[in-house]
Every structure is written in C-alpha cells, then in structure tokens.
Amino acid sequence: MLKCxxxxxxxxxxxxxxxxxxxxxxxxCEDCAQKFLAPSADDSSEVMPAMAGLxxxxxxxxxxxxxxxxxxxxxxxxxxxxYLEFRKQGRLGCxxxxxxxxxxxxxxxxxxxxxxxxxxxxxxxxxxxxxxQTQLIRLRREMKEAIASENYERASQLRDEIRQIEAESRG
Amino acid sequence: MELSExxxxxxxxxxGSGPESDIVISSRIRLARNLADFPFLxxxxxxxxxxxxxxxxxxxxxxxxxGRLQETTMFIDVGGLPRLDRQFLVERQLIxxxxxxxxxxxxxxIDPAEKFSLMVNxxxxxxxxxxxxxxNLREGWEQMNRLDxxxxxxxxxxxxDRLGYLTACPTNVGTGIRVSVMLxxxxxxITRQIEKVFKSxxxxxxxxxxxxxEGSQAMGDFYQISNQITLGxxxxxxxxxxxxxxxxxxDYERQARGFLIRESHETLHxxxxxxxxxxxxxxxxxxxxxxxxxxxxxxxxNLGLIPDLTIPxxxxxxxxxxxxxxxKITGELMxxxxxxxxxxxxxxxxxxxxxxxxxxxxx
Lengths: 171, 363
What we know:
Largest interface: A-B, 43 and 45 residues
CATH topology of the largest domain in chain B: Creatine Kinase, Chain A, domain 2
Order of helices and strands of chain B: HEHEHHEEEHEEEHHEEHHHHHH
Number of strands of chain A: 2
Helix content of chain B: 40-55%
CATH superfamily of the largest domain in chain B: Glutamine synthetase/guanido kinase, catalytic domain
Distance between the termini of chain B: 33 Å
Order of helices and strands of chain A: EEHHHHHHHH
CATH architecture of the largest domain in chain B: 2-Layer Sandwich
Distance between the termini of chain A: 60 Å
Structural class of chain B: alpha+beta
Oligomer: heterodimer
Number of strands of chain B: 10
Shape of chain B: globular
Largest sheet of chain B: 8 strands, antiparallel
Number of domains of chain B: 2
Strand content of chain A: 5-15%
Number of helices of chain A: 8
Strand content of chain B: 5-15%
C-alpha cells in the first residue's frame, strides 16, 4: 500500500505536478488531494479548478503511480502534445487527440457530460478524408521542425507532400 | 461600415422588442468549430493562425459575393486593433475578453445589424454567435444553423461520428453549442432569493454567470443562464433545456416584483425615483454606479413608476455609458476622471431630453 505523502492514510490519488518545469510525483489520500487541488489565492497553475478536480477524480480509479506516469508521457504523433501537457492546460492540441487519448478521455467525458456519444448535428460535408486532414497537421509540424534544424532538403520534400494533399482535398 | 459608425448605433438585440423583454434582455447561441487540417489553438503557431484566418476570410468574401452575407458584413483584424477598439467590441458583446487580450492573427466577422458575430482564433478556430432580443431561442437556432451550414460549404470542420464536433476543450465537444439567455433580475436580488435560484439551476446542470461572462460579478442585476453539457443531447434538446427554465425564472422575478409593490410600495418607488434623480443630475459618475442605478430605473419603467422613458433607451444607456463606448462616441481618449464627468453629462442629456438641462460642465 502506498501511503499518502501528507498523512498516513492510503494514497488513492497519484498526481504529477510540474515544479520548476520538472514533473514531480505526488501520492495523496482523497482528503489531502482535494486540499492540494483546491484553488488557493496564490495558485498560479493554469488548470481550471473544475477540470483539475475532474482529472484527479478519474485518474484515481485504480491507476497506479507507474501507470499514471506512463500515461502522462504518451505523446500524440500528430500534434506532439503529451497527456501531461493536456492535464496541465485543460486544452487538447489537435482533433486526433480525441482518438489517440480515447481511453483516457472517456471517463472524463462521462464526468462532464454524463454521455460519451454525439447525437446532434452532422456536417453536410463529412470530412471523408479525415486521415488526410490530420496528416496535414503532422506534415506541417514536421516541416517547421525541419526548417528549424536547417534540414532544407527534408523540408522541401514535406512541402511537396503537403501541397499534394491540399490539392487533392480541394479537387 | 466602420467601427465608429457602430459606436453610435445599437444592435438589434438591444432594441428591447423581443418576447418577455421586460425581463429577458437577449437570447444568444454560440457554436464552437475547428478546421480539420490545423492543430487547436494551444498547438498552433503564427503561420497556422494566419492560414486559418485567411480561410475564414475567403469563405466570408465568397458568401458576400454570392449575396448570402450582406455586403456590409465587417471582417475585422482584432490583432491589429488598438486597445480601445478591442474594449469597445467586448462591451458590445461582439467578442470575448479572451479574444480581446490575445495578439497575432485574431479576427471577428460582424453582421451590420449585430445579429451575429464570428470570432476567429479564440479558444477554438471559430466561435459563431447569434443574438436575439428577448426570449427567442428558436429563431436564434434557425439563423445559427444556416450560418453554420454556409461556412461549412467553404471549410472542413473537425468532426468525429462518435464525438461530434471536436473542440479544444472537452467541455465543449459534441454539439459545441452554448445556449444562453440574459435576464434582468433586480427584484430577486432585492428580496435575497437569487442565491436560492442559482443553487437550483446548478442542480440541473445549468450555469449562471454575471454580465460580461466568466467569473465576473453580476453588474446591474444581469444574469446569464446557459447549458453546461454539450455532448449526448441534440441541439434542440439543449435549447429546450435552457428555454424551459426561463419562463420559470421570469415568473419568480414577476412574483418578487409584485411582492415589493404590494408590501413596500413606498420604499420601492423611493428607490427607483432616487436612482433616476441621481442619473439625471450627477456631475460625475462611475460606470459601476451607473449600472447599479440604471438597473433600478429599468425595473421602475417596467412597473410604471417612471413615465416617459422606454426600455430600448435604457438598454442603450447600459452599453453606451461604458468606458470604451463613451470614448468612441465622443471621439476622444479620456482618463477615468474625465470619463466619469463625460458619462454624467451623457446621462443628463439622454434622460432629461435636452442638453440645456444641466449641460456639460467642462469648458
């Protein structure tokens, strides 16, 4: 049994906090976790209190600190956001995150909306090339990275690929 | 159409002519949308933002060329606006504070009659909003649905069959809809029942906010009721959820007004008359005090305690007496001291009918 770091009860909440830019593991019991997550006057964290509460709640369900740490490091191959970054900001990085973090997001959506399936309006022009669209996000990011590292040959290859997909989706 | 022309006009939703407009100021529907081929805002860089803005501008231009959007529809580069103009658009409820405070490629598309606005690169790539006077959610949704369809002919939205419209924050995913109704509830505030109302609304998953959005203290007894859930219900169901509760709140407010008229007529009449007296004679007045007093006067007009003053005039004064509006209308940059003097003068002019009655005190 992992003990709460603030009292002697069982730790059921495993929180990864960023302290001075470095991730730090915290293991807390429910009461201490709530105190920790409650917004204080000098709280400079960007997470909305409600969202932080919800995230902590769903993370508490049967996940060990190891599982959590692994989960936090998962990175979307399209926009390169990690789950930890999402937890800190409360904002996702690209449409593909809803697919990539599906399992993690499901309980969160359940908490917020009580539902996990959309039954409302559907766009007339459903993005039939949704994969292509997400690939564009990845390719543009990789092109910027290639330019930043002065790998111009790779950048120009990527530019051609982007143009081709853009032309296809317009045609 | 220019921003300065907008300053002297007032939007359709302020005209105070919609259903239940003694208590319901406006009905508003907002949709959150994102383009499928760009990252969300937190991961977008300046060139992404510029490309998104360009796509929307192209869509708007082509809808204008087809005659489906009015020729006078404005496309405003918010990132390039001076502070005062941004503040003006916030006061006018055409953009959010969040958009006003960010830089780079940010824009807003504004209908000349202010029936809709479209924020570009706010929390999501697109935030469409439609505004109506009084309680009029059905018509608002019809307009919004059409506007959404028109934009969608020109862009590809991020959408999944399972989760619906994909948004930067999971709290908006699904329909991406926020249905809100702005109510004027002074009698519930005076009779101290407002807290009770809030608690019961929260129990049924409706959010309550003060005027001008998130977390701010309610100014002038205005409260905005909106849905919190966006997934797993249809747009119509969510509209009904908000729309069904509003008549109940209207009824509570009317009962509270009736109680005040019956049980403390003199006190209420005195409160309203004093508020009107101060607004008609003050030589310097803050925006907070103005809101507070206008709220009493507004209720007084609805209860027949103040003759010869109309709700549209008061609705307009609420907006036009705010800091950025005063400066846009006079065409001068003013510090707080000068604004408070100008505000008092503006109120005297509009509430006394003539300029000679008091007149500006500055040389």
